[in-house]
């Protein structure tokens, strides 16, 4: 597995916006930190740090505090630096919970992201502090735990599907707690009672590599070639790519704005986001067999969380056949299967498996998988997914 190369991610299809800040004004604002010649801000979607302390001119400490506790070790951060081009600014990330995990990435335009050079990151032995030295390549840069995919990214991406054909639809199925739209992308098979497939994404805001994979995967399912067209004729697709938009906006480490892990709410459905998505799923799958559920996430490595082969399954060999197809290529990313089932943990995987006894898979990308490698792997995964499903569908 390739690890930590210096990469330049050209997320050319992303159009990202940030709220407009008057960056000439160097006064201290709520959550902002400034000195005579530089300023740190988080006044944009996904922006996150807690207290900011100015240690000296051009030297700051940002406390990183999760939205609530206990919480998984996914310490997200995102901030902007304004300073003269060529100025050197030092920023210490101070982890009040957990420790440094995500390698800092820098962008001048919110589209192209580059790993900050290892030589410019100084970690304390316990990894509770990381000091980043940034020599400004322009007068404004963003630094974040992962490339920023904000809510507007989803809006822009999904708007591209709207004009394709009558069988494809993008709709808002309801709102998050804070009133952000929850989107469904659907594609209807030729026959109304054809099998249904469900795809979920972004339950956990910092899991950006999984979100990137989902975009590539879905785009491949909607391509204009014979494989994808045949696949879409045979299957009904229900896709929910951004289930936690409030968490995304706030730069949360894991939860929604009520402090709930949405991927522990499949079954209870106590949260508006999961409830709204499930209502839309119910409406869609009525009178149809559900054949598979994929839920895109990120973790330390590239992993498929799957069912144990001894467990009853409509397609007992599907997941292994699919994984073989993916891993028999010579691409950089291999997915490691992790079979298991925890009936007491109300994840989407547990819920959909128990209800439909079919392959329900948590599709995890490694934190450090590069956008280039994800692009290749997610395309191959989508193609082999379509092929394996088409093999199992009757004429
Ligand atoms: Zn996750």
Radius of gyration: 21 Å
* Ends distance: 40 Å
Structural class, from helix and strand content?
A: alpha+beta
Report the strand count: 20
List each distinct ligand once: zinc ion
Mean pLDDT: 92
Counting DSSP H or I runs of 4 or more residues, the number of helices is 8
Instruction: Output the strand order for the largest sheet.
Output: 13-14-16-15-17-20-18-19
Broad shape? elongated
Described by strand count, sense and barrel closure, the largest sheet is: 8 strands, mixed
Helix content: 10-25%
Beta-strand portion reads 25-35%
Low-pLDDT runs of 5+ residues are 1-30
Order of helices and strands: EEEEEEEEEEEEHEEEHHEHHEEHEHEH
Task: Provide a short characterization of the protein structure.
This protein has 395 residues and is of the alpha+beta class. It has helices at 151-159, 208-221, 226-234, 245-250, 272-285, 318-327, 348-356, 371-391; strands at residues 8-10, 33-34, 38-41, 52-56, 59-64, 78-83, 88-95, 105-107, 112-115, 121-123, 129-135, 140-144, 168-175, 181-187, 196-201, 236-240, 290-299, 303-306, 336-339, 360-366.
Set down the secondary structure blueprint.
Layout: E1 8-10, E2 33-34, E3 38-41, E4 52-56, E5 59-64, E6 78-83, E7 88-95, E8 105-107, E9 112-115, E10 121-123, E11 129-135, E12 140-144, H1 151-159, E13 168-175, E14 181-187, E15 196-201, H2 208-221, H3 226-234, E16 236-240, H4 245-250, H5 272-285, E17 290-299, E18 303-306, H6 318-327, E19 336-339, H7 348-356, E20 360-366, H8 371-391
Parallel strand pairs: 5-7, 15-16, 15-17, 17-20, 18-19
Antiparallel strand pairs: 1-9, 2-3, 3-6, 4-5, 6-12, 7-11, 8-9, 8-12, 10-11, 13-14, 14-16, 18-20
Helix pairs in contact: 2-8, 3-8, 6-8
The chain binds zinc ion.
The site of zinc ion has 4 residues, from loops.
